[in-house]
Amino acid sequence: MSDAPRPTIWPAFKEEIDLDSAEQRGNNDVTFWSQARLHIILLTRMRLRGADDAGAHDCWYRFIATSQCLDADHPAQDRLAMQIMFARSLGTISQRSTDAANDVTQDGVNAQVDSPFLVEDLAATWQYDLPTMDPEQRTNFAAFVARLVAAGVGADRLGDLATTYVRDTLEHDGLRNLIAAEEARCAPSPDVVGILRQRLPVMRVLLQYCGHRIVMGRKGFEDITRWTTLLYAIEACFAEMGEESGYLREQARLASNWLGLFGDMVGIDRVPRPAVPR
Question: Which residues pair with 104 in a beta bridge?
Fold first, then answer.
């Protein structure tokens, strides 16, 4: 998969949004969603009049920044995603332009179909900025993307990114010996704990909110049974490590539940959950 080009955001606008987002961290009552439809309508109107694409990138950046402020499992994330569905409901936009080159985005997708450059900007943020986000921002943004994938927004491109993230997490070199460690009742190494602290919450929200797309697509998921077993091992390894590990243990439990549930939908026999100390 080729890298997504970085969108061009007006610097002063980006700085303003970044400052506002920093102040709104954890505020699930942020009111951008109530203004979002107006932004989308104005963007549509501008494109109908032949405006350039800067306004589209600015609009989607506001969505991306807002998603990082909202708790991953809060209904405010659903409310934000609904505004994207509104944008899609506007259908095809016929731009008043005589330049055919303006009708195609940088990745070759027709720019006039529903939300111009949205998928491109989300993919670029995922590829370039996800590693630099803090764990909470990363999980929140992933939850927003997963909701969009579940609704069919960029299901192929964004769905591939989600699938790759889950696969790379569970195929990480540091996790290969985790099942053996669990069977020997050994505590996971600090390196493994660090990997899981960074990646497990993101993987969990991807499986919870768009796992059906990932599993039913069967892209790289021939090993669902083995991965479910690994998630059980992760849960067991953290079972006796005290309160500090409770969060990661719960993330592993939820991830294995969703993976098993969607695996059932495509006829994959669920791996029995072993008894885990409570």
Answer: 110
